[in-house]
Amino acid sequence: MHTLVLVALVGLAAQLVDGSLGMAYGVTSTTLLLVVGTTPAAASATVHLAEIGTTLASGAAHWRLGNVDWPVVRRIALPGAVGAFAGATVLSRVSTEAAAPVMAGILLALGCYVLVRFTFRSLPRPRSGAPVRRRLLVPLGLVGGFLDATGGGGWGPVGTPALLASGRTEPRKVIGSIDTSEFIVAVAASAGFLVGLGSSGINPLWAGGLLIGGVAAAPVAAWIVRRVPARVLGSAVGGFIVLTNAHTLLGAVWADPDTAAAAGVYAGVVLAWAAALAWSVRAYLAERALPPAAAPTSAPRVEAAERDLPRSAAG
């Protein structure tokens, strides 16, 4: 019962992050499940089983709000499903000792992306009317689906920035399309884990706990969105993911992760995290203090886009 409560709290925390940033549900929940003590394959399998429910609900919400570009969904969902199924079966066949540093490395890279993305980068202006090419969506789906299954998350962090960078789809439809297609990816990943692990390798009670925690967190996430800038929250969450998985990775590759050298690495990560967070807060306050006419041309567009983006799960 104690573990189930912890898992529900993991789901709540992950949904707070995802509902506020539009990504990182899988990355955050998998990281926290590994901290609780689950194996890499079981953590990813549990997260994807829970995501079948969360992505279905949020995809339906995006559809009702008109935030879905269906041609994009059709072209990216199938290769995403293929990549996710392959990634799940690969992870299921890797030993726990070998999988732990691999997953920690993937999560560390995704955490670095979230940290950098929300600390320094801004959203590009979309070029309306230009369709997204299949030659971008097919490999993007394959890579995103594979990383999502093997890393326990990554569909949103991989797919969302790539589509935003293409500049061919407005931000709200990027989030809605990635989020809607993630339902197919979650189903395929869960099927892959069922093939690789069997039903005994997936804990449905934990998946239910994640789902319950996510549902409970949804209204709180909406409150956070109105009061905490996405830029600041993204830097905070990205730094947490980097620090947690750096500890796991060092523990796997260092004979004694408590040495002075390892402590120096941890201190460096914490200092970089604090600097990024301070930069985000300072930049946000500076933008907020400027009158609309004097603000940089990109800042109002970024803040407005972040306020208008749907706040459902995207990865």
Name the features.
315 residues; mainly alpha; disordered C terminus
What does this structure look like?
The chain is mainly alpha-helical. The protein has one domain (2-308). 80% of the residues lie in helices and 0% in strands. The chain contains 12 helices and no strands. The longest helix has 30 residues, at 260-289. The chain is globular, with a radius of gyration of 19 Å. Mean pLDDT is 76; it is low at 294-315.
Q: Sheet with the most strands?
A: none
Indicate the mean pLDDT. 76
What is the alpha-carbon Rg in Å?
Answer: 19 Å
Helix content estimate: over 70%
Count of domains: 1
Along the chain, the helix and strand elements come as HHHHHHHHHHHH
Task: Choose one word for the global shape.
Answer: globular
Quantity of strands, as a count: 0
Overall structural class, as computed from helix and strand content, comes to mainly alpha
Low-confidence stretches: 294-315
Sheet-strand content, in percent, reads: under 5%
* Number of separate helices: 12
Task: Give the distance, in angstroms, between the N- and C-terminal Cα atoms.
Answer: 27 Å
Pfam family, one: TauE
Membrane topology: Multi-pass membrane protein
Subcellular location: Cell membrane; Membrane
Keywords: Cell membrane, Membrane, Transmembrane, Transmembrane helix
